[in-house]
Write a structure and sequence with these properties.
The chain has 352 residues and is mainly β. It is built from two helices and 28 strands. It has a domain of 105 residues: Methylamine Dehydrogenase, Chain H (7 Propeller). It is 7% helix and 48% strand.
Length: 352
Amino acid sequence: MIWIDPTLATETRASRGWGTRFWMLAVILAAGTAAGGLQAQSGKLLVIEKGAQSLAIVDPASGQKASAAKETGITGHEVAASADGRYAYVPIYGNSGVGKPGTDGSQLDVIDVASGQVVGTLDFPHGVRPHDPIVNTRDQLLYVTTELDQTVTVIDASNPRAPRIVAAIPTGEPESHMLAISHDGRRGYTANVGSGTVSVIDLEHRKTVTVIPLSKSVQRIAITPDDRYVFTSDQGKPRLAVIDTATNRLSRWIPLPSPGYGGAVTPDGRLFLIALPAIRKVAVIDLSRFRVTNLVDVPASPQAVLIAPSGKAAYVSCDSSGQVAEIDLESWKTSHLIATGKSPDGMAWAGK
């Protein structure tokens, strides 16, 4: 909405020409803003294109894919950006899903966001299916799940052309697929898919604190900005687990309309958005009441959810359609569809 000073828009015989032109200009600007459907965002949106073995680099302001960086293997599933937004880290997982037969990825690509080129590669000693990368803001090290070793690998990527492994932290469980790190950088939480558990990791002392049993199978994981709650989705029942990080125990289950997948918490900690692939929707959960309060339509097979740093928009990768849906967090509508390569999945934000 554009506000107009009525004293400038008022017409008199002397000012009618100027007032009319001013009013028409304002209307045109307002119409252009509404028609675009895009939130004003700075930085770049990074989107894994699993089916193309590449990383899409998207200008969120225009909703256009600026370039695509070709990966060195098959294929990355997730991505993280360096703190300054200059580099993207893409672990090469392999050509299958978690727990399924296929190739075992053994490397990680470092991609220069500006040029869209791979500038460095880390080779693991053997196939580990490296998956979910996160930069820890406390120590500026890169943490990556390495599920076949049942570990989280710690990487020094300060030299993007020659990243190196500095440690491996055991999770105590198989299929440690996804990772969340507390905002103070001291705790890590892995979603262990096949065992239906969450491992709690002391990142300072590099050891497993405890393992929390939840269900037969879980997927994805997220943490609130105040580090109070961790969320992961039961894959056998339509419900979301809420873990109290003070006790490291299951606090409650939140019923969902359909089994959930990737999700994210808004920066103010009020809402949790979670993809519901089977029904092509994103559920909005009010965290003050722990209940679903809204459903937003998106294209087929929504996977991951990423909230823009501004908190005004959410981005949802939709596997089957080859698109990323932008959701306006004020109107709760899908405001724009961004075309990417085949099978978009993990996303990250480069810059602010």
